[in-house]
Amino acid sequence: MKILVTGGAGFIGSHVVDAFLEAGHNVVIVDNLSTGKKENINPKAVFHKVDILNFNDLDQVFEKEKPDLVDHHAAQVDVRKSMQNPILDAEINMIGSLNLIELSKKHKVKGFIYISTGGAIYGEPKYLPVDENHQIEPLSQYGVNKHTVEHFLFINKQQGLNYIVLRYPNIYGPRQDPSGEAGVVAIFSTQMLKGSKSVIFGDGSKTRDYVYVKDVANANVLACDHINSCEAFNLGWGKEITDFEIYDQIRTALNVTAEPVYDKKRLGEVDRICLTSLKAQKTLGWQPNVELKEGIKLATEYYKTRFCV
Ligand SMILES: NC(=O)c1ccc[n+]([C@@H]2O[C@H](COP(=O)([O-])OP(=O)(O)OC[C@H]3O[C@@H](n4cnc5c(N)ncnc54)[C@H](O)[C@@H]3O)[C@@H](O)[C@H]2O)c1
Question: Atom 23 in ligand 1: which residue has the minimum CA distance?
Fold first, then answer.
């Protein structure tokens, strides 16, 4: 199949591109390189430097490439920025997604894989691990906008657009940008390697569910066979890891004795979250494989090669 991956020059999208190519698909990337990088682009993929807000340029890409599937990773991914500039977040995450949905219908794309967030749509959990039936109460503009696209897809199902939604937990691994606001494995690793202090927002007890990037890339490959499901699937270990635990694991992997500093919790962030992926296991045959210790080792080795030369 020919798959158009938006955000394919970014952290997760670039691993998804690699996984699709390894599975024998042809890949076309659309990315405006706002946070993505040229060096992340797999040379076996066709690259179009196009903004998903530019409907006409996108239309030309669809016309030229005639993709079978769209896998939509491009997004404004910074929760804090979404609170500071809700309109920008809505433009990129809602209008940009609507452009892709409308063009997918116009060009008779067979299906749409949409990347949502399990970490930001459910709000403060009523129970853990959170499943797909948990109520949706996002605390951030980012969470609201990411989730709204799930409704857009539901509406468009009536007009024949098949889709699947993957709700990611916290993803980590090689190529994550340490200058982002949320990739703590990337941020802490590079800070420790440079000998600078790491800041933990809150008292270190906040929890997240960490999945290695190649595991979620594989979920996208499996999703291609279930594109008619028109349902949402959580991905995760169903296991909470505290901010301090992740810091400690990184410091152990890098063999440093640094201590973090603590600052006040940030607006729009939940205290605790982890996601059960039982539904994805049953329907997609997906489960995470790379244990945290192994994943942290792989990620820190990557940052060592980049920041210890
Ligand atoms: N990183 C995580 O832990 C996590 C968790 C849940 C969901 N997600 C979702 O996964 C996806 C990928 O996130 P990531 O962490 O790889 O971030 P990223 O910033 O590395 O990737 C986003 C990509 O989208 C591109 N992009 C942004 N705006 C664009 C636009 N207007 N037009 C075209 N391209 C544009 C960027 O250049 C970048 O390559 C996003 O949809 C995000 O919401 C990520």
Answer: 7
